[in-house]
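Exercise: predict the fold of this chain.
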Amino acid sequence: MKILVVDDEFDICEILQYNLETEGFEVATAYSAEEALGLPLHDFSLILLDVMMGEMSGFQMARKLKNDPATAHISIIFITALDGEDNLVKGLNIGADDYISKPLSMKEVKARVRAVLRRSAPAQQTVLTHDNSKVVYEGITLDLNAKTATCDGDELVFTKLEFELLSFFLQHPNKVFSREDLLKYCWPQDVMVLDRTVDVNITRLRKKIGRYGKQIKTRVGYGYCFEK
């Protein structure tokens, strides 16, 4: 799981990175909101964000992230030396998940990070609606009746096979399927195709679903899986 630390104090970034990496997280750092916005933010599950920075404050950056469908799902914990209930309320109203005051206690930081990630996890699971008509995973929505798909609000144009493949993967996450399995479950039974056809369609599907394409993993010698 990837965490981004954004703070204009080098020492704080270094300390947070070291302590969170000892907890098993993959951690990147940025020393301004502007630098952070230049990163592939959709790769991160959580951002630890300083409030008082340079030209763009943490509040401004958070508001920008929450207004963008591609990054609105990312959890945010504000880190700041600012005191007062008004600042706390302002941060939470923007959409932050928590608020930690400086000076930092690493024990508290680790506990709050784990708590926020636990709370946000259900929103990032694959969801099948009560009438089995839609499959939703983060920014991807498949309408199984209308046979339509959107990714981060944009409509996707799929072939029938691409739609069936993505639907199948999302409904069976973290499970490896061989090419033979995929041919059995996703292809018409009266059509003769080569294993290589599966590879070609997987490649096309990865490209069409953008940032989620990397979650379709190749397990050499075994097949493919959609890894959450």
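Check your answer against the key: The chain has eight helices and twelve strands.
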